[in-house]
Batch of 2 targets.
Target 1
Amino acid sequence: MRKTSIILAIFGILTLACTLPMQITFNPPTNQAEVDLALTITAQALILSEASNERAQETNTPLVPTAQDSTSQSTPTPNSAPAAQQSPTPSFTPTSSTTMVSVSVATNCRTGPGQTYDIVGSLLVGEIAEVVGKNSGSNYWIITNPDQPTSTCWLWGKYAIVSGNQNSLAEVSIPPSPTPTRLSAPNTVSNLQGSGSCDDLGGGPGYHLHTVSGTINWKDNANNEQGFNIYADYLHGDPPKLLGSVSANTTSYGFSVITIDDAFAILVTSYNAAGSSKNASVNIPYNCHP
């Protein structure tokens, strides 16, 4: 019974030691066998107590996540793919396979680079055309003709605003210069006709001054004249006097000539930058009373 009492006392002390911070005194065993038994029980109780404390610490200590380095993988969430399956988003630079051009000042479009080439269209401010080639040496772009979409023309680059991929444009050689058309003098008119009426102005002894007025008509035989010059020829050795001029495609002229009882003729020539045609002449009949 005494051993049992000692054991119960020791378990009671250990139990209270785990729950209450209080001191309990007891009578130590009196013989060696009881001492050894008490020490064994105490040691086992301490081992059980430490194990119990460790389990409590594991269950009561919150988990703190550690930072991951660049080589670690995070645990995927239900709505995300595993990190090993994700790929970086590629960067995208927009490019255009079509090169376009506009202008800050309205610019003519020609058959080649320079004013010696014919104008076949124009690119106005606010319009856009496709660029199909270039000639870097002359600073010209070959574009779709804004006025004739089925053809191309050459646009001066001074006022051009080009967008898109210029490096893919082919260099285009300059076409041969157009052969200038030689301008020739216009053809002479034909079927020149006319007549006049007379107003007597009087005069000195032996002569009378007359004003002869009338209209002449002719046939235009040219398509390149700039106009016609009309002269009066008094037929007495003096050079013809210019009466006036009319524009191209005109075929008549009203005249008024002062003469001294002399017959006279009207001359007509067509002209352009290359020169004048031969004269066409008609004598003007008139009847004046002395």
Target 2
Amino acid sequence: MREIDEPELQPAKSVEIVDGALDAGVLFLCDHASNALPAHYENLGLAAAQFERHIAYDIGAAHVTRRLAAALGAPALLTRFSRLLIDPNRGADDPTLVMRLSDGAIIPGNSRIGRDEIARRLALYWRPYREETAKLLDAMTGSGRIPALISVHSFTPAWRGAQRPWEVGILWDNDPRLPAPFMTALREAGVAVGDNEPYDGALAGDTLDAHANSRGLANMLIELRQDLIGDRLAAEAWAERLAAHLRPVLAQSDVHMIQHHGSRADARPSGEARRI
């Protein structure tokens, strides 16, 4: 686990910005890029080994995101703090915003967290990432080419004793412009693809809902199985494979139009389809 120094004094340190062309037509996000914590949180009372697990970050996702951005000449934003501190891919009122229990691990530093501390973490970590995303999307839209928004995550090879057969999962809500042709291309290339697997892509208040659905931007979330991208070379090789299939999809004109499709999450009872 890495430590962030003096985050209270410099909230912008919570976001890593990868430069790219504003008219690239796509912005990449990595919500769970890092397992870092500020030193004064003292590992939230957890053993250091817990921060090497998926509960702390999306293993391999940061390497994939950076290589995708480089391959397509596009900008990217990555978080620089652990999801155990606060989850940037949750709405501000989501009950899983600050996890007290994750995949069998009790988080002592979160177990009795109060409103003031949640508000502090929102201000120092969650909000700067959301604001930087909105700012960059505004700038990209202002370039004259409407951007698509793609978020990169990773998932465990097994969950609660069940093996997950997919190599890549594509999560999406009601807008098929990116996910439909991309899944077709991956399948034709022999990739085992999950359509809204291992999670459902409709989650009210998540990053894509807040920034893409609300603006009418084409979007999708790419999940990669962690055993396939566990080291940097493997992650970057997968990024190159994905980039090759993304280029023709992003070349489609309708991907760069504003189209409001709504969200399936609006009709879903609260608490359903949570993502780990």
